[in-house]
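Render this sequence as a predicted structure.
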Amino acid sequence: MTAGMPEYRIPTDAVMAEIKVLEEAGVKIVCNSDIKSAADLKKDYDAVLVAVGAAKGKKLMNLPGHDAKGVYSALEFLKKNRLGEEIELGDTVNVIGGGDVAFDCAGSAARLGKKVNVICLEEGACKASAEERDDAVAQGAVIYGSHSNEEIIVENGKVTGLRVHKIKGFSFAPGTGALIEDPIPDSSYVIPCDNIIFAAGQASDLTSDFGIELNKFGYPVDPATGKSGLRTSLAGVYTAGDIVTGTKFVISAVAMGHEAASLIDKDFGGDGNTDFTLIKRDANPCIGQIDGFCKLGKETENMVAEAKRCLQCDLRKQLTRVKLWTEYSDN
């Protein structure tokens, strides 16, 4: 979270505060350690949880020009940008992809003062969350929806544009996942740029040397089910997060971490209970009163802000609708 996502989405201070809580709970964190094999690590520990994420950025290898200078994967760009490392960018950046990661890249590049175009198969980049998409657009990003890519144009060793064409729709072939598109005839043209960022997915970087069974995409497999899950082919080695599901939300990985912790606890004789209470509070229905409240002037902006706070109030589900005078009986 401090290398693969923009600072404006997940501030470093917030992440470090979470890490501090773990350390205070007794968790020992060992950094700068390249783990080559879960099987070797298992020799020294009762249980090993592999939560390395989908750590390898993907490029469209069949797209001519994908290996040119100035062409980056999303993870490569986001990591360098987040860590303040030098990355060569021209004035205009074309981002290929339409998911949240694509708009992480678009928002980050726009904040660097670059002109940004987002080229995606989906109409209106509907695959991304509205919040991510709208933020990037507010920063100046331009979306080219319902577009497919033909080639990255390279002149004198430098990227100068991306040749695209418009499509009516698309699908993926069952089994192979090959792209099937319905192109619009004579719609090919070039979107000029100085750089390309591929944000068309991420992948596992695990290999067979890691010591557990992997599927053809490099994700761990539970032999009992033939699918990726919390268990692996090696007893005592478990998995959780994006290395199981592929790229998803942070909260999804956190939730799976809880599931894995519960499973490990059960396997070692515990009850698997990982429930906890963040803070104990007793809801107090007495919210007080203000003298002369009915004579106060309108505060529309403040009213909207306070209404939003009410949506988070502990009492919200305990409040009932006030009856109109006509609803009371004579009895």
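Summary. The longest helix spans residues 250-267. The CA atoms of residues 241 and 250 lie 8 Å apart.
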